[in-house]
Sequence to fold (380 residues):
Amino acid sequence: MSESTFMGVPREKIDWSPRIDYDKCNYCMDCVEFCPHNVYEINEDSEQKLTVKNPNNCVVFCRACGKTCGLDAIEFPNKPETTKHIKKIRKEAASNE
Amino acid sequence: MSKSYAVLPCNGLDKCAGCITKEVAINLTKESDSKIICPVLYRVADARYNKIAGENPVVVLDGCATRCASKLAIEKGIKISKKINITDEAKANNIVIGSGLVVGENELKLADIVTNELLKEEEQKKDVESVIFPESLEYEIYKKDKFVFRLPKGDFYFNENDCWVYVIGNKARIGVTDYVQKSLSDIMFFNEPALSSDIEQFEDAGSIESGKAVYEIICPVSGTITAINDKLLEAPELINKNPYEEGWIAEIELSDFESDKELLYTFDTYFDILKRKVDEFHV
Fold:
């Protein structure tokens, strides 16, 4: 089982990662501290001090870092749509075999 | 006589949502025999509040997801019987909280809604536990240092997000695996999914919370919630004790298990995933 798949689907084909609302974010970095998957990156020198560096490291359907955000500045894609998308890719892969 | 609580608001003064917790706390003291636990004084001198926290159900009011009041309650080791997050309540009621710190008309309206919700007598729940669950389970064990991870053999399916489902006919029971409870460590609060609500596969079926994190229970199947493990409301630590037996989460009437099954693993595959996760992360 490779790390780069989720339910047998290549991870990069699944669009699931946090979206930062820079109007709300105050760079407290609680999310960075929380996430053990190295999804975020801190760049002290740039204007956006926090970026999503490794979106494909994010665990599909996990929204736990968003639950640490006091400013509610982190959003995620729609779950049912993501599920549908994963099923579709699996069907396509199965019919190509 | 309406219900009364020991009310622990975060009283966060630099955010409007925090200020609203104070309004709710004051409302509760006006409309019931509830008593306020001042978070500032509680932190430095808890003796004053231990009695009221011990004698009344404790309701924790957090303004935002930083959960200062929840963390304080967990730190002090008091049992939380109800939790409110004002930011979530605002969203659920379509109320936009102002960015200033002065509590205005909208904010007071939200405080009233939350107060009424807390004082409302709860309807009698009609849980119907209907899954015939095995009386004893056989486990495979994976050890890492002093930690022991169990995984039940038998008719269980798992999702990649570490939740299990046990299916009999069109009924199922769900829960979390040892990986979740060990990662969270001491679980202090179970936020139950709504009874009779419909749920899609991978949507959250409530959440569980420790001092470390809030974990959304990622439902492995789609269907209707027919029962909730009420014991967890009083004793969420049962999930730490055994998340497969007395720590189960809910029962569901399945709507399309054949389709859900495509995105679930059986024992062998998930056991490999569990082992990999345990090896990769320090629990």
About this structure: Chain B has eleven helices and 15 strands. The interface with chain A takes residues 15, 64-66, 87, 160-161, 200-203, 207, 213-216, 218, 259, 262-263, 269, 272-273, 276, 281 of chain B (CB under 8 Å). The radius of gyration of chain B is 20 Å. Chain B has two domains: 6-119, 139-280.
